[in-house]
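Hi support team,

I submitted a single chain yesterday and got back a structure, but I'm not sure I'm reading the token output correctly. Could someone confirm the output below corresponds to the sequence I sent? I've pasted both exactly as they appear in my results page.

Thanks,
R.
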Amino acid sequence: MVCSPATAGWNRPERVAAWRELGFHHAPDFALAQSQHEVLYRELENAAAEVLELPPAHELSLDAVYTHDASLTTDFGLIVMRPGKANRVPEGQHHAGFASDLGIPTLATITAPGTTEAGDIVWLDPTTLLIGRGYRTNSEGIAQMREVLQPKGVDVLSAPLPYGPGPCACLHLMSLISLLDERTALVDLPWLAVETVELLKGRGFRLIEIDYSERDTLACNVLSLGENRLLAIEENRSTNDRLRRAGFDVRTFPGSEICINGSGGPTCLTRPLLRHSVA
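Hi R., thanks for writing in. Yes, this is the structure output for that exact sequence:
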């Protein structure tokens, strides 16, 4: 599932007017963002993904393009997130309604005072969920996730996040870790907690470090397409070259407007709804 800039209202003046308070670097360029999103869309289709557009809704904001965050899909149904960024709270129920139309039930809904954003959630394996604890996802939200998933045989682990640029910035766990396959992770190593690094190494993960000069252009946000294929922002050339040298097939798309301006990379722009095993 994706949400294009057109659907999120990047061409609507009343929504664009909120760009500063939402943390964008500058007022969005709708035409450029839409064209970049269309390249992303084609790359997903080229990877044999079925790509579905989230329907428009009056409660959506500019942030809705980063469709990953407001819900989490599990083998047991959708978990509706309660984002720590207040303007995004209505997105979760919109995701749930769309998923229901596709035959995907809602397993649970995170409620106040809990907060969760799926950008803080990483599947280490099919039965282990690592959740970053920071300004967007709090301890109560993690406790609710554990209460929902432990009876299903899923172990929920918590990872502390750094202060980073502060509470107004978007610093998710997935800003610091992208899983490239079952045993390889792209990491922003200096910003990860020691216990998180030790957890990854203890589970046998190979760690590839980003080029730290590309941190601010979201080099760590890379989407795995399966079968050794990755989708990355083309501006992060040095990190992308490292991934190619590590044996990955790296496809890229321009992300200056759709990604870097709003601080959301290719993973943020996609909400996986269903994954099929490859025979």
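A quick pointer for reading it: The chain has a mean pLDDT of 95. Let us know if anything else looks off.

Best,
Support desk
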